[in-house]
Each structure stands twice: as structure tokens, then as C-alpha cells.
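Why do we bother with holo predictions? Because pocket geometry can differ from the apo form. Keep that in mind while you read this record for iron/sulfur cluster.
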Amino acid sequence: MSVTEREQRAFIAAAAADARVNVELETEGMTLNIGPQHPATHGTLRIIARLDGEQVVAAEPVMGYMHRGYEKLAEVRTYPQVTTLINRIDWLGSFANEVPFILAAEQLMEVEVPPRAAWIRTILFELSRLANIALFLGDMGVQLGALTPVFFAFRDREFVLNQIEAVTGGRFHPNFDRIGGLKDDLPKGWIEETRGVMVKMRTFCDELEDLLMGNEIFEARTRGVGVIPADIALSYGLSGANLRASGVDWDMRRDNPCGLVYDQLDWKVWTHPDGDSFARYWVRLQETREATYMVEQMLDGLPAGPVMAKVPVIIKVPAGEAYVATENPLGVMGYYVVSKGDLGPFRVKIRSASFNNISVTPWVMRGVYVPDVITILASLYFILGDIDR
Amino acid sequence: MGLVESGKMPAPLTKLLNIGRKYSLWVYQWGLACCAIEMGAAFGSPRYDVMRLGVIPFPASPRQADLVVVSGTVTDKMVPSILRLYEQMPDPKYVISMGSCANCGGPYWDSYSVTKGIDQIIPVDVYVPGCPPRPEALLEGIVLLQERIANEDMTARWKGDPIVVG
Ligand code: SF4
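The structure, written out:
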């Protein structure tokens, strides 16, 4: 369905609901409340949908059920304590949350990170991407009524979590990144194990490609559903795989690696021209596979040396402002840190990807059918902590 | 259940009933934040596999559930919905509070929007500490709850004053 056609349908549906033009097939307007506790919204998002029969006339996301006040809390924590908090914004790829904040603080302090630390940071960054997106790949099946893929996802995700745990000591919230480098070096034997895990993750991708992408029902329910054209995606500030699935070739890892080592690797940014739910799934699947190759390259090229630069024991960040954004699993995540020379930041503004990604829902859900609401929500892939913060 | 209501439940029957109840817990998953993923790993993943403990994690509605696992950060905006769904559960019902956030506010102990402990609004049977607790910890919590159920006197529970909430 083309965009204009879709717009037309939405318009007709709205007119029918409001003016009752459609007397012959009159359907009663109805307001459907999805959430805040609903398995399909992975978390506590609430969608208020105005329906005309099976068609959505207007949908409005209601946020704030998971608002925990990170920005305010960061003002009363010291710099090392802030990482403990911001781990929990996007809880599936926790390590990736720490990196932009630490990079911003390092920019202010003008600390040079040893190369080994930068490499290990990038490895862990990509591992958290794997842990995050693996769950999406399985979960999308559940939303469409196929329960099997999520068991695969949970099974194989455990291997990645094991690797993260072996380095950082935490399955979920590592709190491992420090201003000036990392807390520790890699444990013995870790590199070989990780190689094995990367092979497993690729097998996982192949399995899902077999299970879902070739599946007729899956294609029927995702192709042409929730089309977001490139200009709309850009104007709503979408980022990450959602943007690339609309055909926009934009990846912060390539365009602005700022402190991470993506520019020294050989990899490819995947895009898809369609902009529908299927494209979003496809792009994420390719990215998962690409990430495994990236990790392998980084394991090969890992330089020797220390993992921590010389920084004072009590960290005071000089006055100034810095904004650093990286390409997190969900999209662009940025921290705007204002320091007044104290132990803690004066103000932290967090730009999280899901907030923008979800803001497109009122636009994209006009005129779709009720089951497609779930497909679109699942394919936009958001994490509530990342929306509400 | 006339026996239970009249308070004349013979001990062997109580034991039998309790064994039945303890191995057929239907869990309503109230996943709120990071802990929900660990709960998902405990309930949905092949590695931890909660069903071997006789726990069935897929009731469609709280009206079919015996146990609710509140996992994650409870915010003040969320509390009314939690209370409402808890009240919809049929008695006897149990609550597991999973994670520091649900226990006491966790890392957000000084946040303006987070409820510091779910036990302020609903009675909690088992607290599982951790941020997030490992899936094994949740499984242990369930085993502890099962022990508790096994030693419960149904008639006492029935005769006791209704649990006042709110
Ligand atoms: S206890 Fe920790 S892991 Fe669990 S929801 Fe709270 S912050 Fe997240």
C-alpha cells in the first residue's frame, strides 16, 4: 500500500467514524486502551486507540509509567555513580548506555584513553548490541503469534550474557566503564570463547532466517505494514535500524565513531528501501550478523597495553559542556553533560532513541487494522526505560 | 470447599490440598523494568525452565492467577493499575516482589517518581533481592513460596480477617 493510498484510507476511516457517512455498514466508534500492562508492549507503554470497526482512526501513546527521573538523579550523584544509574536506561544493552556518558566526561577532562581500552569498549558495545537485538528477533515472532523464536533467542542470548558476565561480573548491569578506561582487563581464555559464541550467534541468525523470514504468514503480516517513508522518518527524528529500514544510510558508528574503533574495522551499514515492518526486521537481522563479524575482527586486532589511563582517584570534571552521541542498539543515544567543576554533573540531558522512535506511532497507525498495531509496535522496537527514562 | 469454610479441615486433607496448590501455581507476570527480562529468562528460557517446579507462567488474565511476580520499578503513576489488578486476583493469592526496586526503591531511593517498595500497597510474601536478581534467585524465591504454601493452614487463612488493602 502506497503512502498516499494509506493517507486516503485513514482519511476515509476518520470521516466515517466522525460523521457516520457510512450508514450501510455502520460501525460504532470505540476507544481501545492497550496497556499499560500488556504483553505486546514489552513494558508499560499505553496506547489509546480510537477505532472504527477494525480500523484505527487515531492512536496516541501515553508515556511516563516508567519515568524514574534519571536526569534529576544524575545531578545528585558523582560521576562514577552516574554510570550505575544510566546502565538501566536501555536495560537490554546496558553497557552501551555507559559509553556515551563516559566519553562526554572524558572529553571534558581531556583524558586520552589507552588503545586497548577503546577496543575492549567497542567489543563490549557490540556484545550488548547482540544481547539486545537477539531478544527483538525472537520477540517479534511472539507478537505475531509464533512462540518458538523467543525460546531460541533466550537460549542463544545467554551465551552472550555469559561472555559479558565473564568480563564485567554482571549479566545485565555491568557498570564497567570508567573515566579513563575500563575497570579490568579481559579474563584468560575469553577471546577464544567469544569466537565460539560469535559462531553460535550466526547460526542463530540463520535459524531465524529459516524460521521467520521465509515464512509466508510472517511476510504477509509484516510486508507493507507500517510503512514509514524516509522523509517522515527523518522529520520525526527516528534513528538506528528504524531509520535505516526506511532507506536512509545513516549510522553514527561510521559517521562519527568518537572514541570507539569502528573506523578501523571493515564492515557495512545495512539499509532497506521499503520502510515497512519487514524491512525493520530484516535490517536488524543483518546488523546482528554484521556485529558478530565486527567482534571477530576486533578480537583479532586487539592491541596490548594498559586498560586505564592516569586519572585522579577523586574525579572532578572541569567546568564545561559536552555532547556525545553513539549508535546504541536502539538508535542514537546522546548525553549532554554540563559540568561546573564539581564531583557530580550539574545537568545531564539524555537523548534516548526510543522516545523519538515511538513518537512516530500516531502518524504511522492512522488507518491500520488492530492486529497491525501490535506488528508496528513490535517492529519499531522500543524499550520503556529508554522512552521514559 | 465446605470443609474449609466451616473450619473443620482434617490435617491429611490439608496436606493433600496444599501439595496440589503448591505445584500448580499460575503466575501472572507483572514485568515492569529490567527485572522483567530476568523474569522472562527464568520463565521463558530453556535454560532455567520454571515449569519443572509446577509453575505455569502464562495465564491470560490476573483473574486466573494464584501468584503475581512484581518485577521492576514501580512508579507512582503505575501503582493504581497494580492495585486494581491485584484486587482482581482470586484468593488465596501470593505476591513475590522481585528486585531492589520493587522491594524498596533500589537505585532510585531518592527519586521523585518511584514508589519505594511495593509492600506499601500490596502484601508481599517473598522478597527476592538483587539488581537484577539472577533467574536462579527468582527460582529460589518460588521454592520458598512453595514451602510456605505447603505449611499453610487453609482454615486459618480462610477465617482470618480479610486482607485490607490501601
Ligand atoms: S532492581 Fe535493578 S534491575 Fe531490577 S528493575 Fe530495579 S533497577 Fe532494574
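The CA atoms of residues 39 and 143 of chain A lie 9 Å apart.
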